[in-house]
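RECORD TYPE: inverse folding
INPUT: structure tokens
STRUCTURE:
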């Protein structure tokens, strides 16, 4: 692995830890409802968060300022195409390929050993 890739991973992991600590310290709760922020500027104006919001916020804190342009940071149906349009690659768990047609988005957090599945 190149040094640059290691640095990028470290920045991303530090940003995720920062967002996690902020969320944990400020009474955020998991939500799938209409109380989620629609864009990055709203993440600190509400206490609702979902997996897509967490990913979006982490990318923004990592220096990906183009996350401000994302039309909806809390809906995987818009977030995934947005990330792909900015060079992101969808990674599927090979054991879950049969679900790909059902449009599962699988996020594997490096600091957890399990997978989180989000159905859109």
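DESIGNED SEQUENCE:
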């Amino acid at each position: 692995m190149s040094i640059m890739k290691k640095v990028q991973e470290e920045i991303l992991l530090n940003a995720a830890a920062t967002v996690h600590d902020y969320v944990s310290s400020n009474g955020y709760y998991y939500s799938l409802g209409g109380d989620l922020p629609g864009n990055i500027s709203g993440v600190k104006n509400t206490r609702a968060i979902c997996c897509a919001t967490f990913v979006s916020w982490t990318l923004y804190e990592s220096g990906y300022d183009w996350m401000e342009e994302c039309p909806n940071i809390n809906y995987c149906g818009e977030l995934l195409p947005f990330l792909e349009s900015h060079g992101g690659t969808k990674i599927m768990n090979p054991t879950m390929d049969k679900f790909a047609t059902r449009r599962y988005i699988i996020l594997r957090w490096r600091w957890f050993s399990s997978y989180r599945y989000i159905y859109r």
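NOTES: The radius of gyration is 14 Å.
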